[in-house]
Amino acid sequence: MKKSLRMLSALALVLGLIWAEAGQAQTPPAAGKGGPGSGGRKGGPPPAATEACKGKSAGNQCEFKRKNGEDVQGTCKVHPKGGDLRCAPPPPAAKACKGKSAGNPCEFKNRKGENVQGSCAVPRKGGDMRCRPKNQPPPGGGKGGTPKI
Question: What is the CB neighbour count within 10 angstroms for residue 85?
Fold first, then answer.
């Protein structure tokens, strides 16, 4: 029995070392070369968004110009999967409730370009008020109070 346990422990140790070594072999892409938030790949933030947060901390206000000349205002954030600090504009659902109160009607375009109507509510986890779509049930079973997402 003791011999079996020792063999099993040794096998687990060897497999752990192999797994750790395999993880070391994968090197993350260099900044601007395709990593999350680098701006170096299609779908990443534009380089101007990264530049707008140089010398700033996460949570600081920022602004930059898109290639089409559009002014963008946002907050410096790090991509959830890593990468550089970049200027992230608020999502359309948050923009739709800027200057409004909880329960006010709101409307925004989703990622598919469809109009979404709803009412302004504070997210459960806190943060800026957002437009909660009409077809989304109220949190907590609709027991009243300040609407939360």
Answer: 21
The pTM is what? 0.52
- Residue 123 in any domain: the answer is yes
Give the count of alpha carbons within 13 A of 64, CB side only: 20
Range of the domain at 55: 28-89
- Which CA distances in Å does 149 have to 22, 51, 68, 83, 97? 41, 32, 33, 28, 13
Within the chain, how many helices (H) and strands (E) appear? Answer: 3, 6
Q: Taking the chain (149 residues) in consecutive chunks of 10 residues, what is each chunk's mean pLDDT?
A: 60 51 44 43 78 94 92 89 88 93 94 93 85 75 51
